[in-house]
Write a structure and sequence with these properties.
Elements lengths: L6 H24 L20 E3 L3 E3 L4 H17 L11 H10 L10 H10 L4 E10 L2 E10 L2 E10 L3 H16 L5 H7 L7 H12 L3 H14 L4 H13 L4 H6 L1 H13 L4 H13 L3 H14 L4 H13 L3 H14 L4 H20 L1 H5 L2 H24 L4 H14 L2 H14 L4 H9 L9 H15 L4 H12 L8 H14 L5 H13 L3 H14 L3 H18 L2 H17 L4 H13 L3 H14 L4 H10 L10
Parallel strand pairs: 1-3, 2-3
Antiparallel strand pairs: 3-4, 4-5
Helix pairs in contact: 2-5, 2-7, 7-8, 8-9, 9-11, 9-12, 12-13, 12-14, 13-14, 14-15, 15-16, 16-18, 16-19, 18-19, 19-20, 21-22, 21-23, 22-23, 23-24, 24-25, 25-26, 25-27, 26-27, 27-28, 28-29, 29-30, 30-31
């Protein structure tokens, strides 16, 4: 006999089934967890052409110390590109970081055992160390090439004037030992020394030993003057400005650097290393569109140029182009999967996509789909972080990524684990203190007592009256539940940080501008934006200045001011085409200038980037033609 249920019972059962399904999905999301113990992944084989070159040990005359450092660095450059990439090598900053995490001076000249350990942590198969002995004009060099299967020593002797020839001999022997496959052009280039005078090596060595930035810069230029036209001193200068602390004002105001760049372009146009450094310098001048084109051309000509892909990924972040950033990070892992930073960079790309999904209005309105997308990308980020930590437990970038994801997931225990690792590596890691403290903000239902303990740690490490302490307090007020009520407090902290800082940074002034805009202080915000844009003419400051002009227009109703805002925003969109903010702000200005169709076009472009952007949807609905009135007959 067939059972029949009343209609009301059927509806009730259907509702129960639906609630169980939804509850299961929600529980699946809420159980998203980060394993407390980071699994150590199986070792990943290092590429056969990966190596790390360390400063050589020395014995002999007063200049032998500097000569040893210079020769090692020149040999490293020669093995990197000829003229396309031959080997995979970590940049000097990564090697220095490994020394610091071991409480060693970055200028340490390591023994073979320590060099092999550091090289393995950086994902390199080969560790190159050496000994340089000088006796007057006589020089002898012994290069020790070590890998997991053993070590081999290569030697060369001669006079100081023979150092270029000795470099080519040793470079060729190392290439043969590593089994590098060279075409005829690469073989000829490898046998061409990248310096011609020993004085250039000595001056570079002095810059390597110097501690002050001014002294480093002085000796690098002296190396170039001692051997004008040579590739080695040119690369050392370009790398100093590309990876060093030099900001826009320093790079743009150095006339010698402009001349040097022109020389490299005209004489070493095929060298992938030089072209990559020029692309990075272009991005530091805030010419992201041009830098994007330069770096893409390097990769098109030399697909294996790891540093170019890393630089293009950084430019993609600046242009808000998450798709390109993810593709280049994936290519970095493909090229150098044993490098922990490759996986950390790929994890960061996944994390930024997760954050964008979390913040997108469209995805948030789709409730469970938003959570699924966030979970998928966050899990991918964590997986890459775990691989990086398994390859190198001292990889600060991976632990930082772990902290970010744990904070977003609300996993306090796991975020504390990541925070403890970071400050163990670097007790003055300001970013770690800031992000961990923000996770306890009242806007995130955090623990105020725990946040105070973190602030006590900051005061103990940096000093309660330090710029770092003031800035962390300003940011915590900014991320609080009611930031508008704490605007005066935030502004006071920022002003104190400015007074205590030796140099005014873009981040500090940018925070001050955002506080002033929130307080509707039109005059002060405009003056701050003008100051920031004059010092750092970046797309971000172009956007800030455009917003300041919009606020000024509210008061003056002068369309010329609003046109200035529109012009700045058009330039912003050219450099940062994937940032929806520029298009929304430009549409706002164009609407008030009476350019309706142009504004509508920008709003549609904003919706293409962010299909559920509430501002764009609202403005387009307001611009939509109203339906004709309906008559009763």
């Amino acid at each position: 006999m067939k059972l029949r249920f009343p209609r009301g019972v059927k509806l009730a059962l259907a509702l129960v089934v639906f609630l169980i399904a939804v509850g299961g999905l929600y529980i699946g999301y809420s159980r998203f967890s980060i394993e407390s113990e980071i699994p150590i992944k199986k070792p990943i084989a290092s590429p056969p052409n990966s190596l790390a070159v360390f400063s050589f040990r020395y014995r002999g005359g007063p200049d032998s110390k500097f000569l040893a450092s210079g020769f090692a660095r020149a040999l490293s450059d020669r093995l990197l590109c000829a003229p396309r990439s031959l080997t995979l090598q970590p940049i000097g900053l990564d090697i220095n970081e490994e020394f610091r995490y071991r409480n060693l001076d970055p200028r340490t000249r390591p023994a073979e055992e320590l060099a092999c350990e550091i090289a393995a942590c950086l994902g390199c198969r080969w560790a190159i160390t050496g000994d340089l002995s000088q006796n007057g004009e006589e020089v002898s060099i012994a290069v020790h090439a070590s890998c997991g299967s053993g070590s081999k020593t290569l030697t060369a002797r001669g006079k100081l004037s023979d150092l270029p020839k000795m470099q080519t001999i040793l470079a060729r022997r190392i290439a043969d030992l590593m089994g590098l496959s060279l075409n005829s052009k690469e073989a000829r280039e490898l046998e061409t020394p990248n310096f011609s005078r020993a004085e250039a090596l000595v001056f570079y060595g002095k810059s390597f030993e110097a501690e002050k930035v001014d002294a480093i810069e002085l000796f690098r230029w002296k190396a170039w003057e001692a051997d004008p036209g040579a590739l080695f001193p040119a690369l050392r200068l370009l790398e100093m400005y590309a990876y060093g602390p030099a900001d826009y004002a320093k790079i743009n105001g150095e006339r010698r650097l402009v001349d040097l760049t022109k020389h490299v372009i005209s004489h070493h146009a095929e060298n992938s290393h030089a072209r990559t450094l020029i692309g990075i310098l272009t991005s530091k001048r805030y010419k992201y569109h041009e830098a994007n084109g330069l770096l893409r051309k390097v990769i098109r000509d030399d697909p294996n140029m790891y540093a170019a892909r890393q630089a293009l990924m950084a430019v993609a972040y600046q242009r808000r182009d998450d798709g390109t950033a993810l593709r280049e990070a994936s290519e970095m892992v493909r090229l150098w999967s044993s490098n922990p930073k490759s996986h950390a960079q790929l994890g960061l790309a996944h994390y930024l996509i997760a954050r964008n999904a979390q913040q997108s209005r469209r995805v948030r309105d789709m409730w469970l789909s938003a959570r699924r997308k966030w979970q998928k990308e966050a899990e991918a980020a964590l997986e890459e972080a775990r691989i990086a930590i398994g390859l190198n437990p001292r990889c600060a970038m991976a632990w930082r990524l772990f902290l970010y994801v744990a904070n977003d997931a609300g996993k306090r225990r796991e975020s504390e684990k990541a925070f403890r690792h970071l400050i163990r590596l670097d007790p003055r890691d300001w970013d770690a203190y800031l992000n961990y403290a923000i996770s306890f903000s009242d806007s995130l239902n955090g623990n105020a007592k725990r946040q105070k303990k973190i602030l006590a740690m900051v005061d103990n490490e940096f000093g309660s009256a330090s710029p770092e302490a003031y800035l962390i307090r300003a940011y915590l007020a900014y991320y609080s539940r009611n930031p508008a009520q704490r605007a005066e407090e935030m502004l006071d902290y920022v002003n104190k940080a400015v007074l205590k800082s030796k140099t005014l940074t873009s981040d500090i002034l940018g925070l001050k501008f955002n506080i002033l805009i929130g307080m509707a202080r039109t005059d002060e915000s405009l003056q701050t934006a003008l100051l920031g844009f004059s010092r750092w003419p970046s797309p971000e400051w172009r956007l800030y200045l455009a917003k300041a002009y919009q606020f000024e227009w509210y008061r003056s109703k002068d369309d010329r001011i609003l046109q200035k805002s529109a012009n700045l925003l058009e330039d912003f969109i050219k450099d940062v085409p994937f940032d929806v903010r520029g298009r929304i702000e430009l549409a706002w200005s164009l609407l008030r200038l009476g350019q309706i169709e142009e504004a509508r076009s920008q709003l549609f472009a904003a919706l293409k980037l962010d299909p559920g952007n509430e501002v764009a949807v609202r403005e387009l609905e307001r611009l939509a033609p109203k339906p004709p009135p309906r008559f009763p007959f």
